[in-house]
Amino acid sequence: MTLPLLVAALAFAASASGAPLATTCDRTTLLAAADAYISAQASGSLTNFSTVFSPNFTYVENNSPSQINTSILTTPLKLDHRRTTADTTLCATFTELISATGPKPYVIGTQIRHSPSSSPQSITLIDSVVSTTGSWLFNATSTLLHAQAEDWSSPLPLAKQSSRAALQATADAYLDMWSNATASEAVAWGEPCARLEGGAYTGQGKSTDSCKAGIPSNHNQAPNTHRQYVIDEEAGSASVLCLWEHMMMAADSHEFRLEGGKLRFIHTMTVCPGKVCKL
Ligand SMILES: *[C@@H]1O[C@H](CO)[C@@H](O)[C@H](O)[C@H]1NC(C)=O
Ligand SMILES: *[C@@H]1O[C@H](CO)[C@@H](O)[C@H](O)[C@H]1NC(C)=O
Ligand SMILES: *[C@@H]1O[C@H](CO)[C@@H](O)[C@H](O)[C@H]1NC(C)=O
Ligand SMILES: *[C@@H]1O[C@H](CO)[C@@H](O)[C@H](O)[C@H]1NC(C)=O
Ligand SMILES: *[C@@H]1O[C@H](CO)[C@@H](O)[C@H](O)[C@H]1NC(C)=O
Q1: C-alpha of residue 75 to centroid of ligand 3, in Å
Q2: Is 210 exposed, middle or buried (0-12, 13-18, 19+ CB in 10 A)?
Q3: Are 155 and 161 in contact (CB under 8 A)?
Q4: Which residues make Cβ contacts (< 8 Å) with residue 108, sequence separation at least 6?
Q5: Whose CA is nearest to atom 4 of ligand 1?
């Protein structure tokens, strides 16, 4: 009898004080943390950014738990492009970074996860795919050129936004195509659609451009597993980090943009740690 009363009293106290119950999951806070991440990568310094890490914080690079103090984040990078999406349901962000004009080229996809508590030290996981020379179809100059020419503006008009379920369904169906012969039937294919795969681009500027170009014809391959999602309905984006079991157990990032319920853009980064990726 007393427990429901206590819960009710706490809920009342929280709402009466005007404090939201999950203050770290609002978009502004998530985006501010992603901006701190971007500043850290640009400066090569963790001093400011590390103040928002949770005590149990984990850093993962190319699917391996790693020491952040010796990671790519301690090398200052000239960032030619950055774009962040936010998932207010999962308390997470995805940031795409391109460094094409510095001493060594990088294209980086980073998911940052927060605990839903109101603690200011809320980042529990930074999970990055760090692609560079030797990664699948890597060419940062080309990636920059095409990423900058595409229109990923956000928020999409309400009529062009998709539900979380629809965004994830197309991402999952697409990633299932390597191991499931009928999965492609469940992808919300759109035209035009362009895929930026490493630095290779399928778009030709035609209204009939399709992301079906070059999709797997062998559906008996090892699957894409360990999928981690960041889904932003406003941006029409589903980001998935996963394990590319059919290609040298590579660390992979796929981001899908849907407009009006149809696939419009795909960006990929695929890293075969310590090796040059090949089929
Ligand atoms: C850290 O934050 C302080 C205060 O905002 C700022 O002056 C300084 O430049 C930042 N340092 C780095 C390395 O970003
Ligand atoms: C990483 O560096 C920070 C200070 O920059 C330090 O407090 C922390 O102990 C270091 N962690 C490890 C594992 O060395
Ligand atoms: C880390 O701590 C946060 C709360 O601060 C909690 O939500 C999360 O589950 C913890 N993660 C692990 C791996 O223990
Ligand atoms: C990378 O892409 C740029 C821009 O498309 C192109 O000029 C260059 O030749 C490419 N580099 C390689 C090594 O393919
Ligand atoms: C293959 O994909 C189809 C379409 O998404 C789905 O209905 C079916 O359950 C999938 N099969 C397996 C074995 O996952």
Answers
A1: 28
A2: middle
A3: yes
A4: 41, 72, 95, 96, 97, 98, 99, 128, 129, 130, 131, 269
A5: 48
Residue closest by Cα to atom 1 of ligand 2: 69
Q: Is 141 in the pocket of ligand 4 (CB under 6 A)?
A: yes
CA-CA distances (angstroms) from residue 154 to 13, 25, 183? 36, 18, 29
Structure tokens at 217: 């014809």
- Across the chain, which has 279 residues, the per-10-residue mean pLDDT values are 33 36 73 97 97 94 97 98 97 98 98 88 95 98 98 98 98 98 98 98 97 96 97 98 96 98 98 92
Confirm or reject: Cβ of 115 under 6 Å from ligand 3: yes
pTM check: above 0.70: yes
Q: Which two tokens stand for residue 82?
A: 């950055």
Q: For residue 56, how far is its CA from the centre of ligand 2 (angstroms)?
A: 13
Strands 262-271 and 237-244: unpaired
The residue whose CA is least distant from atom 4 of ligand 5 is 183
Ligand 4: atom nearest CA of 139 is 1
Six-digit token string for 37? 């991440």
* Cα(69)–Cα(100) distance, integer angstroms: 23
Distance, CA 163 to ligand 3 centroid (Å)?
A: 28
The alpha carbon of 181 and the centre of ligand 5 are apart by a number of angstroms equal to: 8
In the reported structure, the alpha carbon of residue 230 is separated from the centroid of ligand 3 by a whole-number distance in angstroms of 18
User: Two tokens at 190?
Assistant: 């759109």
